[in-house]
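In keeping with the milestone schedule agreed at the kick-off meeting, the structural modelling team has produced records for the first pair of proteins. Each record is given below as a sequence line and a structure-token line. The laboratory manager (R.T.) confirmed that both were archived under the project's standard naming scheme.
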Amino acid sequence: MARKNFVSQLRERNEEAVAHWVAVYQKKIFRLAYAFCGDREEALDIVQETFMRAYEKMGYLKEETNIEHWLYQIARHLCIDRYRRQKSQKRGAGINHYPDALTLIKQEWPMEKNSELRQLIGEAMEQLSPRQKLVFILKQINELKFDEIAQVLGIAPGTVKSLHFKALRHLRHHLQPLLGGEK
């Protein structure tokens, strides 16, 4: 399906195009939402709300619109809104809230270190700013390039790289005890 033709079909709310659109992007949006909020049901709610809002605005799509980036922007706003609403509540997210797709640690760990690792990553992720967390998730889990993240977030690529570097530095620092260094 040609890109411009696909956008036109979406604007016209062609059922086949909309079904294809959801099938292609729902897993990507879910990975972002789940990694950000750490709760499966909440992530599913964010995915549903993302597609509902996008569907409502579909008639305004321009031919040159990057649909994936547009969906990420909607999901990003929803994630940050939920984060702000829950900020005052202690969420106590362990790593079980973060998918194993956090491939920050790609080597095999002994079983006794797995639960400690999960706990430390969860704690470290909760301490990141919302922007650092989003950049980290989009880069490490959704595997977007820095330029793509910059487009999604509407910020300069240099800012994206800086936020990613700060997130990695924070996570490394937080994980030092488990990695064999001092905190």
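The second protein of the pair:
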Amino acid sequence: MDARDGKSSGLRLPWLLKFLGFFPDIYDSLPAQFTYIPARKERSFMSSKIGCKLLTGIMFMVAVLFVVSPALAAENGVITGDMVTVDYEGTLNDGTVFDSSSRHQTPLTFKVGTGDVIKGFEDAVMGMKKGEQKSFSIQPADAYGDYDPTLSQKVDRKNLPPTPEPQVGMVLLVNPPGQRPMKAVIKEVTPEMVTIDMNHPLAGQVLNFKITLTEIGQ
């Protein structure tokens, strides 16, 4: 679920984008600080781990690398450090499907405990076993936070790139001086001003998931 790029993305989840504060007074020096970026489907997650144990004998010492078998992992359930693969569908309370593995034509794989996915999603897979299905809801505090109205701002059209013509739904990359770049969605366009929203698209939303754990690895 693409964190989401951030907290990610659909739940691509790159979806794991963290937004910083943005202040209207920076608009005075912005002609080149807005960039249009193309719409795309995203999801970011990943990595792996194995552990080892040193065995000592009376006459010799042997180092042995132990890799936990998939069968044992499946029996014990998901723990921190496991690499897991899930099929999922995410919906809002009104039934809207905001992301799914079928939409991306591939399941979601991520390493548990690295923060690659939103907290509520990671918490939900803990203890699950291979083949298990689960339905759960994630509150905004464990997803993309509450909606912040101060992140909705009006921008003089003169500060936007001359092309393409701004339209509702377009995505901008905003580069505030001294801060990290942020994504913003155009919400309203008038002859003089453009209203942009720098909240995550799922901010303030309760996220409902149906998932199937298909693989557990190390």
